[in-house]
Amino acid sequence: MFSNSRNRAPRPRRSPTPSGGTAPRNTTSQPPSRSPSPSSPAGGKPLYLCTPFADAALVKGNFKTIVMLPKYTDIMEWVAVNIFDFYTNLNEFYGVIAETCTQHSCPTMSGGPTLNYVWTHQGGKQAMLPAPTYIDYVMTSIQNLIDDENVFPTKSSASTHQSFHPSFPATVRTVYRQLLRVFAHIYHAHYPQILHLRSEPHFNSLFAHFLAFGREYELLEVRDIKGEPNAPVGVGLLWERWKEKGILES
Ligand SMILES: [Zn+2]
């Protein structure tokens, strides 16, 4: 039954929202400018950590119940369906704010005041990319994986572990880590736009669900959520706060 939601119906390739992320965003290549100071007025706490924005949510209470494996559901299938949903929802959010995420505004893939994620090309070569390029690479690579029947099989709804490749857990951990980085960038650099759209309850709920699911199924390591001491992930503090409030499990 769960496979229905990601059956082969034609899916929007990229952000289906009217503001459109489908047009190539990298047509003009401008030299990187100084990094703008994001969502942190006067060097204070970022807005996403401020009351009431930090705790605004559509889902009240603890997220444990909605991440639990439903009866008679294969765990691989459950993980696949949820990853598809996280990807789709996050892609829509990014599509809405994409016009404010440009090479000029976001010359690096920032995820905290001193944190810039580095893209690793296949083959291991590393590159500092502007955030819109980085995110485009992430979303395109995940879409390709989802479309690949060998990675995300959709046949046989009574799926068994055999239908998933043994490398599936490793693949989805990589996908999860990249999705986390997109969340981290949006919170760090674009939270004012989320507030402007009054989408913070929605976005917080999506992220809390994502974190709860990732921890429950060991798709996310604490190190990825919190970052390094000299380069912390901004949303690491949000995660701590939600644990203190009982929204997430400690
Ligand atoms: Zn950006």
From TrEMBL:
- SUPFAM superfamilies, A to Z: Mob1/phocein
Signal peptide range in chain numbering: none
Task: Look up the domain of life of the source.
Answer: Eukaryota
Q: Which Pfam families match?
A: Mob1_phocein
Which residues of this UniProt protein bind Zn(2+)? 101, 106, 185, 190
Q: Which InterPro entries would you find in this protein's record?
A: MOB_kinase_act_fam, MOB_kinase_act_sf
SMART domains xref list: Mob1_phocein
Alphabetical keyword list: Metal-binding, Zinc
Where along the chain is composition biased (Low complexity)?
A: 16-32
Task: Specify where the region named Disordered lies, as residue ranges.
Answer: 1-43
What is the name attached to this protein's record?
Answer: Maintenance of ploidy protein mob2
Q: Which organism is it from?
A: Pholiota conissans
Q: State the organism's lineage.
A: Eukaryota, Fungi, Dikarya, Basidiomycota, Agaricomycotina
